[in-house]
Amino acid sequence: MFVERYANDISRLITPYENYNPYPKVENREIWDLIPSSIQKHWISKGETHLGFSWPAITAVDYMQYSRNGNVVRFQNKYEERRIALASLVLAECMEGAGRFTDQIMNGIWTICEESSWVIPAHMVISKASSSDCIPNISDQYIDLFASETASLMSTTHYLLQKPLDAVSPNICSRIRMEMKRRIFDPYLERNDLWWMGLQTNRKMNNWNPWINSNSLSAFLLLESSDERRYRAIEKVMRTLDRYIGDCSTDGGCDEGPVYWDRAGGALFDSLELLYEASQGKINLYNEPLIKEIGRYLYRVHIDDTNFVNFADSSAKFEIAADIAYRYGSRIGDRQLVRLASSAYQTNKPPLSRWLTLHRMIPSFFLDDKIMGEKETPPFVRDAWLNSIEVMTAREQEGSSRGLYLAVKGGNNDESHNHNDIGHFLVYSDGSPFLIDIGVETYTAKTFSSQRYEIWTMQSAYHNIPLVNGIQQQAGSAFKASEVSYRNEDELAKLSMNIAGAYPQEAGLGSWKRTFNFHRNEEAYIEIVDDFELSQETDAIQLNLITPCMPQIENTGTILLRNAAGEQLWIDYDGSQLIACFEEITLIDEKLQAVWGDFLYRITLKAKFPVNASVWTMRISR
């Protein structure tokens, strides 16, 4: 897409280095003073908290914790502390412009430049030369997500503060340029073997591609003074982004889950915007249907407030990058995305992020008054069908989170950040969770290893799907839904699929057709029909349901779910064929506790007697 249209004209389209001034430098006080005082005060305060910051040492043993015990926290806490401190100090200095933060900024620059590697231990496997104990070999320079974020931070810091830093010592900015050349610029231009570039592999691209490319592109535009090298880098960015865009679902769906949209679709927007601005609008893909669909995904999986449909490794509750979503929606002319973003921005200002990516934050400072002036509510779209990733969402009524909400997933078990979850579904009521996707625990070495599916949250037994003969769904592209059919009318949203193919042969499934009927008449309810045939009779069949509400088994055929606010949901099932019980799941992971508290519950509806074929119907209502 990019290469075909623009690659041959880059030197003509892109603003030369000497004329490229995307943001005001610190000395342009009249422009920085236009930023609302609330934002200025916020970042000056953040900077002040780091005036006495003691830059933590990163030791060899810190690197080795990942290989020794899978711990990612010890290293990354120190690594990220340094970068958050530097970014906060840089923004504080730009807001105030009095030189009060300069010494600590120099300390931060020097400390980060002294690091043996900007790549984190968990990503050392990309290296050709780094040892298995995660001690980096500095002769092998390559780029991961974290190195690219550091590159963006260092290049933006250099761009904004070069004049006052040079006044203290030219060696500070000189050191930045030297480290950027050997750690980022040369590897980016010279290497084609990094998998996320997609230039020597057929592997499907994920968020690594736009995330690293957007940060690398920003760094080249801001810091590479050789226009010939800038143009080469931009051409390569275009080639690698084309690989990502080519792998995107035509429906714009993010199979990694909405929490990853920020650094998947959102990072693609960063790249689109950087190229658009650097070419003064001549490089422009915002009218492309696929680019619009990628932006729209975010509101199609929005439930209410900070609740989102969290298939894959996504969290059920998180704050979106509202400023990025607003800018994206504005560029593609989509009011629904603008509404979601402006609504989120009102309650999350300034937007919070684990990453203080300066090249995407600074433009948003100058849009604050405009976004705050929107005073919008989320669109609460009634229906969405993402046919490529096979995700359905439906609610009772357009424009409101009141009533029942249903989300269903088909697809396959080889998606990015995959869980074994074909035929899985969520049910919310008035925006509150009742039947859920647990999400994922804090990442460890095991999460992205061959042992991934030993982790309970990845297994089909802990999703809202059947367990047959004690056999769970399996991972791999061959394990998928078939016969998928979607229908949408005013009073009925319907999705059916055969999920038998998600199980290995030993489960003994001939067919398992699962149908979801969302009836939106006066008495709304959700009906789930499991119509199955097995190779032989068995009573080892159970339907699993995960809920944050302690279940009350009222009588044969009825379960009551009531949350802490007193809101309730009824589950009716065929008590003549199934018997209900439940177990308490104690959560010990801090990431899951932050979303669900200390406990979850797994309801099981078990077969009362052996069958080789049957039709089971479950009804969920308020």
TrEMBL record:
Question: Domain of life here?
Answer: Bacteria
Primary localization class, coarse: other
Q: What compartments host this protein?
A: Cell envelope
Q: Which InterPro entries match?
A: Chondroitin_lyas, Hepar_II_III_C
Residue ranges of every copy of the Heparinase II/III-like C-terminal domain listed in the record: 406-570
Q: What is this protein called?
A: Heparinase
Q: Which organism is it from?
A: Paenibacillus germinis
